[in-house]
Specification:
The complex is a heterodimer of chains A (about 110) and B (about 110). With about 110 residues, chain A is an all-beta fold. Helix content of chain A is about 0%, strand content about 55%. Chain B is globular, with a radius of gyration of 13 Å. Classes of the chains: A mainly beta (about 110), B mainly beta (about 110).
Chain lengths: ~110, ~110
């Protein structure tokens, strides 16, 4: 099925470093979302973006909705060990169906 | 408050068998979604209910897959004649309305031998 292109696939960083990941699509989306998934759990929403060009922060997380509506990025500043997990971007144009990226697996070395 | 719950948490079955996966959404949420997540991939949409009716079932892979939500609350995903390729984590999510934030359950891990 349709998926977004998310990169990088994995990251292994030192605690305290900043992290950046992005997501691109061949189609436009009206809403971009970023989720985090821990092992054995379902995805948990981190940030939602509703307007092209929008920049939104949630604590150490910052995400932007690309002006073309075909991309988004997520930054995590000053990473800590509990940031470990898989991060997914998702796009939607209508109530209901979310289209997910393949995920970015983040590992943080203390 | 209680989140989305899914049962069973794990299911092992044999090729050709029938399985049912249950989802209990957050109380009061009118919208319910099913997704399938294969290893190393993001979730893939299967079906979306608004109340009792399926508003979008475009993600169901074939007619072996069927889902119901008869009273607008609990939903059951049914898979007939299971195949090894059906092995995946089946995630359920609910939202207050169709445009609202989706809250995911922990998933049911299905293994078809």
């Amino acid at each position: 099925g349709q998926q977004l292109n998310q990169s990088p696939q994995s990251m292994f960083i030192q605690e305290g470093e900043d992290v950046s990941m992005n997501c691109t699509s061949s189609s436009i989306f009206n809403t971009w979302l970023w989720y985090k998934q821990d092992p054995g759990e379902g995805p948990v929403l981190l940030i939602a973006l509703y307007k092209a060009g929008e920049l939104t922060s949630n604590g150490r997380l910052t995400a932007q909705f690309g002006i073309t509506r075909k991309d988004s990025f997520l930054n995590i500043s000053a990473s800590i060990p509990s940031d470990v997990g898989i991060y997914f971007c998702a796009g939607t144009n209508q109530g209901g169906k979310l289209i997910f990226g393949q995920g970015t697996e983040l590992s943080v070395k203390p | 408050g209680a989140g989305v719950s899914q049962t069973p948490s794990n299911k092992v079955t044999e090729k050709g068998k029938y399985v049912e996966l249950r989802c209990d959404p957050i109380s009061g949420h009118t919208a319910l979604y099913w997704y399938r997540q294969s290893l190393g991939q993001g979730p893939e949409f299967l079906i979306y209910f608004q109340g009792t009716g399926a508003a979008d079932d475009s993600g169901l892979p074939n007619d072996r897959f069927f889902a119901v939500r008869p009273e607008g609350s609990v939903s059951t995903l049914k898979i007939q004649r299971t195949e090894r390729g059906d092995s995946a984590v089946y995630l359920c999510a609910s939202s207050l309305g169709g445009e609202e934030t989706q809250y995911f359950g922990p998933g049911t891990r299905l293994l078809v031998l």
